[in-house]
Amino acid sequence: MSATLSAKSVALQQAVQAVLGDKITKLVVDRDQVIVEVAPANYIAAATQLRDDPALQFAQLIDLCGVDYADWGEGAWTGARFAVVSQLLSITHNWRLRLRCFCADDDFPLVDSLIPVWNGANWYEREAFDLYGIVFSGHPDLRRILTDYGFVGHPFRKDFPVSGNVEMRYDPEQKRVIYQPVTIEPREIVPRVIREENYAGRK
Q1: pLDDT at 44
Q2: Lower CB density within 10 Å: C or N end of the chain?
């Protein structure tokens, strides 16, 4: 938690605690940014209260993204791997809030879609699905938005290979674009080490 909090952050923290109550699993203020965490079972209910309660009125979803916490903190992380993080804005109160919800299952990350609460979540959730493989239950059109139709895997996951899994090229014999396994040979690049005693001709 930040050593000193602005009066606005203190007021927001108190308002969120009063409205959400036991729906909050964690609430912190980091760099004067209020961050509230809720369980998947309370995700939609909490989001609806954040939008509708007169004390908060977070009418606008500014952003939504996925996060992969694998190996976070140099392997110190022991919690759930995938989370959905939303940035909310209350124009009425001039407040910003970060809402985070961890997916219960690392093998099949799933949370409810926020589209019934903020319709603008549509493309953001498609992006999180495309890049992280997070599934949004109730999304009306959950399909890839940035990668190609034949893309294999989710490129923002920490375990995704740098060279990818599949490449596409135009085959002049078949006269069409084809997909094939990546043909880039893996190689290890060792950086050149310059010893200080030999730098710039020193002896």
Answers
A1: 98
A2: C
DSSP H stretches of helix in 39-83: 43-52
DSSP for 10-48, written as a single string: HHHHHHHHHHHGGGEEEEEEETTEEEEEE-GGGHHHHHH
Question: Token pair of 59, please?
Answer: 């009418």
Amino acid letter, 110: L
The mean of the pLDDT values for the chain is 90
* CA angle 96–99–101, rounded 5-degree value: 175
CB-based burial, 14-26: b 16+ in 10 Å, e otherwise = ebbeebbeebbee
Read off the pTM: 0.82
pLDDT of residue 191 exceeding 80: no
Residue 2 pLDDT class (50, 70, 90 cuts): very low
Class of domain 7-147: alpha beta
pLDDT tens-digit series, residues 103-159: 999 999 999 999 999 999 999 999 999 999 999 999 999 999 999 877 889 999 999
The three-state secondary structure class of 177 is strand
Query: Would strands 110-112 and 95-102 be described as parallel, antiparallel, or unpaired?
Result: unpaired
Q: By three-state DSSP, how is residue 75 classified? A: coil
Q: Is 86 exposed, middle or buried (0-12, 13-18, 19+ CB in 10 A)?
A: buried
Domain ranges (residues) in the chain: 7-147
The amino acid present at 88, given as its one-letter code, is L
